Amino acid sequence: MIANLSLEFFPPKTPEGVDKLRAARQQLYALAPEFCSVTFGAGGSTQEGTLETVRQIIAEGQTGVPHLSCIGQTRASIRERLAAYRAAGVRRIVALRGDLPSGFGTGGEFRHASDLVAFIRAETGAQFRLAVAAYPEVHPQAASPQADLDAFCAKVDAGANLGITQYFFNADAYFRYLDELRRRGVATPIVPGIMPITNSTQLLRFSDGCGAEVPRWIRQRLQAFGDDLAAIRDFGADVAAALCQRLLAGGAPGLHFYTLNQPAATLEICRRIGA
User: Fold this and answer.
1) Residue 116 three-state SS
2) What pLDDT is stored for residue 98 in this prediction?
3) CATH number of the structural domain spanning residue 52
4) Triad 140, 144, 150: Cα angle to 5°
5) Three-state SS for 54?
6) 121: domain range?
7) Sign of the CA dihedral running 270, 212, 113, 81
8) What is the pLDDT of residues 114-130, one digit of tens each?
9) Number of domain units in the chain
10) Residues annotated as part of the active site
């Protein structure tokens, strides 16, 4: 087993999706995850689904961790959400800035994730363990790499306990990012986020939207496979397994898998690395 392995899900929108995710979780629990996080839609658009999915995970005997984004939120709405999380037995939160949904008129009372972290600490003290996002390849909206490092340091100064990275395929970017943070005196654990490759079109669309670099050699191999989904999945498992092995060998404190609510790819990657 991998120490500090964690899994990420998104809240389903249909009863069929709920059933499929429940079945997926049961398979993935074989990996003995430290926690299972559940995403929070732009502007809080999935907040009830997030909480309900977290409740189900907790009822299944696992550690459920909701994401909480602050853009479009007020202090009162975040305070209400924190109370609901406490009542549900939540003890960890992934605290994010998040995005406004299309057409949303106002940014709310928070500008940055560090503002949210500071507010949670002021409201609840040490009741929650807080994870925040980290960007080894630089946040796409950051003014500069240094500004992006400043933003992460601000989240740590506000009280974050853990960083979870945006997914990446270049291990050197992760290790360089760690070196830069350590030079700034930041000792907070930074867990790499791992994105399984199962669909080339989906991967490239996600990556273009979030600023994650897909190396040219990976893009070309994916293009060469065309519509051969089995070949894409086998290649993707090889790529991700090699990345995980290098990260763990280099001292990464764990792995966080973006499962996309599908168990097979994550299970195959973990099988290949002996987890």
Assistant:
1) helix
2) 87
3) 3.20.20.220
4) 100
5) helix
6) 5-272
7) negative
8) 999 999 999 999 999 99
9) 1
10) 8
pLDDT band for position 208 (cuts 50, 70, 90):
confident
Beta strands, E only, 124-178? 129-134, 162-165
In whole angstroms, give the CA distance from residue 109 to residue 184. Answer: 29
pLDDT in tens, 78-87: 999 999 999 9
- Predicted confidence band of residue 210 (pLDDT cuts 50, 70, 90): confident
Quick one: pLDDT band at residue 42, thresholds 50, 70, 90?
low
3 state DSSP class of 185: coil
Provide the 3-class DSSP secondary structure of residue 258: strand
Task: Write out the two tokens for 259.
Answer: 């499962």
Query: By three-state DSSP, how is residue 69 classified?
Result: strand
61 conformational bin, left if phi > 0, alpha if psi -120 to 50, beta if neither: left
> In angstroms, how far is CA 176 from the centroid of its own chain?
20
**Pair 169, 215: CB distance under 8 Å:** yes
Task: Identify which of 169, 267, 172, 255 has the alpha carbon closest to the alpha carbon of residue 219.
Answer: 169
Q: Are 36 and 64 in contact (CB under 8 A)?
A: yes
- Amino acid identity of 91? R
Structure token digits, residue 200? 């080339």
